[in-house]
Amino acid sequence: MDRRGQRRRLVVISVIAATAGAASVLTAYAATGGGSKDASPGGHRPAASAPETVNTGVPQTSPAESRRQASAARKPSKKCGVNSKLVPSCGAFWGMYSVKGRTLTTSITDLEKRFGRRFDIVLRFHDFSNDPPGRFPDASEQELGRSRLLFFAWESKSYKSRTSYKWRDVAAGRYDSSIIVPAARRVRAYGKKVFMSFDPEMDRHMTKGELKGNEAEYVAAARHVHQVFQRAGVRNVVWVWTTTGSLGGDNAQRILKSYPGHAYTDWIGFDPYNFYQCHRAPWTSFEEEVGVPYRWLQRNGLGDKPFILPEFGTQFDSADPERSRQWYKSIPGVMEREFPNLKGLIRFNSGEECDVQLDNGPGMANAYGQAGKAPYLNPPR
C-alpha cells in the first residue's frame, strides 16, 4: 500500500483500558522493562495469569458466606504485566497507526475517545535522515509515549528525496556516524522501552520497487544496526523482525533466508490483509488470513518468539456487510483460541490503496471498537 507523508507502500501495536491506573501500569513497565523476574530473556511466552473473578450469583446461605463474598468482591482483579521484552503475561496488545487527525496526538486520542479506551501501542514510520521524519522520538511521540508503547518502523530511505539506501552500505557502516548513532543516542535518552523494526517487510525490497539488496545483505544490515545500538549503550529497544507474511512463490524461502537470528530478534511480525476484490482474491476471514503465516512460522522454528501484527486490515464487502463486520468481531475469540502466541496487533488506518481504512463501510469502525473492548484484548494492566 502506498503511504503518503511518512512512508510509501507497506503491507506490516493494541488497546489498553482508558483508566489512569491502567495507563500508569503500562507506562511503568515501558520505563523499567518490568514484569516477572523469571521471564525468558528471549521473549518466550510466559505463563498466563488469569484475572481473579467473583461469582456474584451464588446464594448467600449464611452471614459468614455473605462476608466472604463481600471481601472477595473488594479484591482487585490480578493485573497483567510484561517481561523485559514487553511480552504481556496475559491477553494481547491492541494498537493503532493513524495520521488522519489535526495533529499526530489527536489522530490517536480522537480514536481513543471514539472507542472508549486507550491504545496500548502507537506505530510510527521514520526514515534514515536527520530531517524531522528521521528524528525520533519527536515531541508528539514522547507525549503519546507517556501512557502508551511506541513502535518505530525504521526504513533505510529518505522520504524527502525518495532515495532508498542499499543494505550493503548500511552493513558497511556508511550511515553510522550520520544517521544510526545519533538515532541510537536519542532512543537511549528517551529511556522507556520501545519496539523497533528495521526495514519492515524487507521481502518486498528484494524483488520489485525499492531494490535494496538480497537476503544476506539484509541480514548483515539488520545485525549491524542492532550492534551499533548495543555499542551506543541502548538497552531499551525491543527488536521486531517484520515480513509481509506472504508465502506465495519463492517468498517463503526468501523470508527464512532474511531472518537475522535469535540473538538479534525479540518479536516476529507479519502483516495480514484481506484485500479481497482489490487483489481479485477470495474473501478471507481474520482466522484464515493470520493462520497460514502463523503456523508456517511455528513449523519453521520461529514459534519461540512472540508474534505481532504491526499492520492488519480488511476490505468491506458491500454485498455482505455482516461478514465484513464479523471480520473484526471474531478477533478476540480467534486469538485466544487459535493464536496464543500472537501477543499484539496494530490496525493500519490508511486507505491509500485497496480501501482498507477503518471507516470503509457501515458499522466497521464500531465492530473494530467492540473487539478492542473484549477482555482478552483489554485485560487489567
Automatic annotation (TrEMBL):
<dbReference type="InterPro" id="IPR022790">
    <property type="entry name" value="GH26_dom"/>
</dbReference>
<feature type="active site" description="Nucleophile">
    <location>
        <position position="311"/>
    </location>
</feature>
<dbReference type="GO" id="GO:0004553">
    <property type="term" value="F:hydrolase activity, hydrolyzing O-glycosyl compounds"/>
</dbReference>
<comment type="similarity">
    <text>Belongs to the glycosyl hydrolase 26 family.</text>
</comment>
<keyword id="KW-0326">Glycosidase</keyword>
<feature type="active site" description="Proton donor">
    <location>
        <position position="201"/>
    </location>
</feature>
<feature type="domain" description="GH26">
    <location>
        <begin position="70"/>
        <end position="368"/>
    </location>
</feature>
<feature type="compositionally biased region" description="Polar residues">
    <location>
        <begin position="52"/>
        <end position="64"/>
    </location>
</feature>
<feature type="region of interest" description="Disordered">
    <location>
        <begin position="33"/>
        <end position="78"/>
    </location>
</feature>
<keyword id="KW-0378">Hydrolase</keyword>
<feature type="signal peptide">
    <location>
        <begin position="1"/>
        <end position="30"/>
    </location>
</feature>
<dbReference type="InterPro" id="IPR017853">
    <property type="entry name" value="GH"/>
</dbReference>
<keyword id="KW-0732">Signal</keyword>
<protein>
    <recommendedName>
        <fullName>GH26 domain-containing protein</fullName>
    </recommendedName>
</protein>
<dbReference type="Pfam" id="PF02156">
    <property type="entry name" value="Glyco_hydro_26"/>
</dbReference>
